[in-house]
Design a protein that fits this description.
About 40% of the residues lie in helices and about 10% in strands. The chain is an alpha/beta fold. The chain has two domains: about 180 residues, Rossmann fold (3-Layer(aba) Sandwich), CATH 3.40.50.1980; about 120 residues, Rossmann fold (3-Layer(aba) Sandwich). Strand 2, helix 2 and strand 3 form a beta-alpha-beta unit. Helix 2 packs across helix 5, helix 3 crosses helix 4 and helix 5 packs antiparallel against helix 6. The longest helix has 26 residues. It starts with 8 loop residues before the first strand and ends with a helix. The N terminus is likely disordered.
Amino acid sequence: MTTRPNPGVQKTPPFIPHPASPLTLALALTLALTLALTLALTSCAAPKATTPAPAAVPGAPKVLAVETFLADIAQNVAGDRLTVEALIPVGVDPHAFEPTPTDIRRVAESQVLIANGAGFESFLQKLLENAGAERLIIEAATGLTSRQPQAGEVVDADHGGIDPHFWLDPISVIKYTENVRDGLSQADPVGKNVYAKNAETYIGKLRELDTWITGQVQQVPEARRLLVTNHESFGYFADRYGFRIVGAVIPSVSTNASPSAKELAALTDRIRQTGAPAIFLETGANPQLADQLAGEVGIKVVTDLYTHSVTAAGGSAPTYIDMMRINVQKIVEALK
């Protein structure tokens, strides 16, 4: 299939690479070195089987989404007409994903590839070059504007100041849904009305999710709506629902970065000053640094938030909406 112009769809999307403290600098340096030695362990748990998708109609284009949560969003738009498979296995951190020859073959065999974009998939440009041929590429985040860090937040200069984690705000996922709808309609014009109807239904579910999250967050006093995370990923979520980002153990939008001793000391100071009650880690993150920091300042660590992957069908978060609900329940319970 050759690539044709369409908003949110392109042949090759623009992937943008991306003082004193109660915690002594000596301890902080030790923690930083420990992280460097164990960074390879910070990627998510071993892959599991993905959720079975419905069989596509005969002659339908082969559609591949890069991330599992994106495959779920796209499958809701595709319905029973198309099968949307995920390139990255369930439970694998996209920041640590390294394509295999099998992955290259799967991309080469696809007619439609759906990516988050906004610089999130740093590996994708090379993967596309190795796969060759042409395919329709839908960049789900097209049309969304990167957030501006709020006062006191760290700017991730290594990624051009761009935060690609739009999907952690369900209202932004409405734009994802629209872009997927338009792209699938271009690839399969016969199914245009199906995609439009399915997208409308799913957008309604996203609005219901947004309303539910807003109600849940009301249980948390405003003064306690403070987020300390493993890395900088909850900015859009915080902006939408009135949280304040205190900081991150890894001050980057990528889990591949490493904190310096000075950064760890500064985070400890901010936690003490704000009274943030917890550190939140995504599933598969190495908890060692967070546990040591939490022990130093006397707060708890909440693990297994789903930020980059859904679970297998039998897991607790097999869909994007499920993963958002579980995250909100854990955050609210820890802060209220």
